[in-house]
């Protein structure tokens, strides 16, 4: 069960929310999930790639241009530095709660939640001591339509190569930062509401996977920001506020080394996406079709 929670938490960080809007698969000039950052005093270009943290093996592919961009870079940057043992300890700590979930609910609410959790292959008793954030991470497991032994983690595959090539590795934020954002956006009541939508997440995940494979950042942005799954307040906490903090850290990273940033695809597009925020800082940010 703990592995399932951890898997869901990892997936959650890139998905956050989804909707079942129809996909537009037309190839536009901005259709890329790899972007080059240059100008504004940089002596070497850096790169940002949008990721889908966890995919089934049958859907998993890292395009040659992404590998080439990583190879050209000196520093590999993830949302969280998975090589930092203290961060891994924080994930473990994130799972526990000071107060049992059942103690925060009426008997009737607890019984209803137990019925909902049956659809996730678990019970309230099994997760009762977990935090609300850990409980919410179960939502993402509905979007992984294959067994745990058939999934691959996008950033981990990139990280393996970065370490083999002796690149420096760093993170844009701490586990505590992500946990805080999610816990503020989704309290226990909201988390239970999202768990009820599990099958809708599963349907939407298929569309999101197709948008990711088509490298369509606009469609991904639409998929992520449906009010059914993420209202404006939650969007601000989970996406906008974090993007704005990251974009303050990125210039120093790019100034010192050519950096390759791997972040959930939902952080790229839109008015408050990393692409727009970096352009506002004076950088040239352009899509990479081949490299």
UniProtKB/TrEMBL annotation:
The keyword Signal applies. Keywords: Signal. Residues 1-22 form the signal peptide. It comes from the Bacteria. CDD domains: Tiki. PANTHER family: CYTOPLASMIC PROTEIN (PTHR40590:SF1), CYTOPLASMIC PROTEIN-RELATED (PTHR40590). This is TraB/GumN family protein. It comes from Chryseobacterium panacisoli.
């Amino acid at each position: 069960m703990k592995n399932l929670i951890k898997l869901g938490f990892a997936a959650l960080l890139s998905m956050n929310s989804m909707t079942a809007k129809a996909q537009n698969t037309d190839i536009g000039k901005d259709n890329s999930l790899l972007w080059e950052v240059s100008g504004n005093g940089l002596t070497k270009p850096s790169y940002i790639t949008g990721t889908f943290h966890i995919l089934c093996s049958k859907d998993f592919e890292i395009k040659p241009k992404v590998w080439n961009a990583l190879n050209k870079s000196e520093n590999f940057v993830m949302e969280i530095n998975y090589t930092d043992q203290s961060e891994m300890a924080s994930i473990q700590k994130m799972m526990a709660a000071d107060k049992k979930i059942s103690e925060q609910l009426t008997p009737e609410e607890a019984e209803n939640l137990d019925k909902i959790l049956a659809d996730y292959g678990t019970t309230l008793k099994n997760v009762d001591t977990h935090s609300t954030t850990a409980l919410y991470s179960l939502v993402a497991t509905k979007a992984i339509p294959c067994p745990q032994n058939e999934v691959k983690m996008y950033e981990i595959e990139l990280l393996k190569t970065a370490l083999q090539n002796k690149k420096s590795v760093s993170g844009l934020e701490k586990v505590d930062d992500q946990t805080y954002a999610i816990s503020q956006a989704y309290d226990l009541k909201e988390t239970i509401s999202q768990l009820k939508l599990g099958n809708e997440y599963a349907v939407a995940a298929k569309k999101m996977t197709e948008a990711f494979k088509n490298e369509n950042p606009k469609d991904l942005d639409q998929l992520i920001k449906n009010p059914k799954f993420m209202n404006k307040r939650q969007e601000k906490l989970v996406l906008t506020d974090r993007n704005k903090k990251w974009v303050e850290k990125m210039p120093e990273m790019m100034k010192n080394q050519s950096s390759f940033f791997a972040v959930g695809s939902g952080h790229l597009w839109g008015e408050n996406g990393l692409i727009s925020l970096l352009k506002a800082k004076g950088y040239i940010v352009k899509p990479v079709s081949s490299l």
